[in-house]
Amino acid sequence: MKKCLIALAALLLTVSKLSAQMTPWLQWTFLPERTMNEIIGETSGENAWHVIMETGGYDKDRPASEYESVFYETKFFFEKMKEYNLPGAELVRFPGGETWDAVKGELWEVSPKRQKLASYLDMAAMLAQGSVTTDATAELVWVGLGRREDFAGKDVRNKIVVAEGPTSSLHQIACMDSGAIGVISIYSQRPLFDAVQLPWGSVRGDQQQNRPAKFGFQIPPREGEYLKKRLLAGEKITVQAKVVAETRKYEILDLTCYIPGTDPNAGEVILSAHIHEGYVKQGGNDDISGCAAILEVARTLHTLIKEGRIPPPKRTIRFLWGPEFSGTGPWVKANKELMKKTLCNINMDMVGEWLSRNKSYMCLMRTTYGNPHFVNDVVENYFRFVGEGNQEHLQNRSNFFPVTHRIVAPTGADEPFYYSIETHYGASDHEVFNDWGVQVPGIMMIAWPDQWYHTSGRRHRRSERLHHRDS
Amino acid sequence: MATRIAGEITSNATARLGHQMVRGLEELNKATKETLAEAYKAARVYLEAAAVNEKNTLETILQLSVDKKRVGEYLASTKKSVEQITKIELDVLERHMRTTAEGLKAEPVTIQFSALEKKASKMYPKPTEKVKANGYGGYREYLPRTQTTRGQGGSRRLDRSELQLLINGKNSILDIKNMLDAQAERRTDLQDVMNYVEILKTAGLVEVK
């Protein structure tokens, strides 16, 4: 992450003023070497990683009181902003809505053995979101991949269906269409890569026909395989499912602060990252890592400017944290006048991966032809500086420092900065800025592919990696 | 700083244009006698659309410049350089097309436009003030609720978000279709673009000249 942070902090100063086939000892940026050295030295990947671990280390069972006041992550980031004395630190509220929240979710085998099969307390993703309050005991029935054709000739009424299919479609076919009282999915997108990884599943009722959802449990492939084998062997298994779920009201909470520019008429640059994807579905990498990254950028620039180590920027650099889309959208809509003088948006989404272990690249997703902007090439410049400078080239092997501009946190990943310059992709907060009604060119930085994308693993599994990585 | 960034854009543009050229060459390499004309047309579109994007990107540098006249002159000459690079690469495509045609025992392609393309090339949609009047997503309230029928501008393959952004009063409807094609794996139906622009026009979100 430190490498990513350097690239971001440096490009901000460029925008706000302060080669592949290249000679392997020549790297450059738009900023003087002295300024780059200050940025590289002040930026702390470790500090950013600490923030990730504090706010995204595992899936927290959020207490009901958080929904009525301020979410833990929001509060933590706000306190950090105040601790760093970041100018304009503000918590902004918008109307929210209602959301599902689990109080309890336990699945126990009661016959022929007595053993726990799944628990919300163990892994929040074990209980499908949308599951309703239940206390039911029933026999299990195996339906293979859980497709509609797999149900042929099987009576699942008043039973609990087990399958290797995704929870949502399994619940639809089994419970809404076939009379089952609940489902257990042992589905995983990457069972061979990570056998304890669970997707974030959900179940839905039929509101039009006033038919509520039932419940869904999810068991990781490692344990699910045992259940599958027993059912395929013809064993008759009875389980008890206990679910307590609530509907909670919430407010949308955004955070902002800024580094003031010297020329208020020169425009602004906005950095964004999403602090929530959901309130039960949480994410250390997606996207607490982006939130931690831009917080560290804000701290770095503020410290350097305050101490006179770099000049203040000409243009204001603004920072925005909020729930993905649902928090960014209202804030942008409420700041229509500010959008008129905003040059561009830089969105950071899932930037905390240990690249080699995740088999990924740090990608720059450019703007489209409909939103052309120089920010694409400014960022590419810094990606190249960090990428080429942290790679040992064969031509340099005899040099005392074969890696010309090595950037690594004390316990971070000492590896190349694998990067890729890509064409546009949306599906994150930069699309709010790219919207036709806003037209502020927005780019995204993202580590992709992601071997833990939208799964339980994006928290604790990743955090293990983050502990060692290039934070 | 402005001119330094312009230099970076130009440097990267040469690589990006080169990528579009080889993409076009591959279109020609896989063409048959029957598809050669369409392949050549697509190959030129990739390059020409990319060149427009590079020049538009250079234009944005003016946001940074204090001395707008000096930087403006620099950008004007830099854009000419981009045009020259594009011209050279279009020449390469033409040469490759002629060689390919010879191998396929086909006539060299003379690009011809359909009646629809001719019509679309003369239509220049421009956004109205209603587009940004209500900020993020605000324009949607003027649009009809369902646009699901293919041929009514509601094709699932139509990238409406990008199409809208390409409406700037300078791009013709044909230009817009070409810029969509250059950025996507699948080609966009020109009639779909025409229909969707008509929907936007009816909604008062664009004017067409």
Structure description:
The complex is a heterodimer of chains A (about 475) and B (about 210). Chain A folds into two domains: about 1-85 and about 260-470, Zn peptidases (Aminopeptidase); about 100-250, Glucose Oxidase, domain 1 (3-Layer(bba) Sandwich). Chain A has 13 helices and 13 strands. Chain A has helices at about 1-15, 35-40, 45-55, 65-70, 70-85, 165-175, 220-230, 285-305, 330-335, 335-340, 375-390, 430-435, 460-470, and strands at about 90-110, 115-120, 135-140, 160-165, 180-185, 215-220, 240-260, 270-275, 315-325, 340-350, 360-365, 420, 440-450. In chain A, strands 1, 2, 3, 4, 5, 6, 7, 8, 9, 10, 11, 12 and 13 form a 13-stranded mixed β-sheet that branches. In chain A, strand 8, helix 8 and strand 9 (about 315-325) form a beta-alpha-beta unit. The relative contact order of chain A is 0.19. With about 210 residues, chain B is an all-alpha fold. In chain B, strands 1-2 form a two-stranded antiparallel ribbon. The model of chain B has no long low-confidence stretch (mean pLDDT about 95). Chains A and B meet through helix 9, helix 11 and helix 12 of A and helix 1, helix 2, helix 6 and helix 7 of B.
